[in-house]
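User: Here's a structure from my thesis project, written as structure tokens. My advisor, Dr. K., wants to see whether a designed sequence matches the one we expressed. Can you design one independently, without my sequence as a hint?
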């Protein structure tokens, strides 16, 4: 595991992160509070990193 991925904390799959994003939107009813928005943004960054890891591993 690279130091960069370890810095992100526990490494979750893109599918797991996508499910968390969907659950957050469902819980919020489609309107995020400031705290939920921060959580959403962090999840999206982690999701994008997971997608990149998957593409790099597949190459």
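Assistant: Designed independently from the structure alone:
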């Amino acid at each position: 595991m690279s130091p960069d991925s370890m810095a992100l904390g526990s490494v979750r799959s893109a599918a797991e992160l996508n499910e968390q994003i969907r659950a957050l939107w469902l819980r919020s009813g489609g309107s995020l509070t400031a705290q939920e928005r921060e959580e959403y943004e962090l999840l999206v960054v982690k999701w994008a990193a997971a997608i990149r890891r998957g593409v790099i591993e597949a190459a």
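When you compare it with your expressed construct, this may help: The first helix runs from residue 3 to 7.
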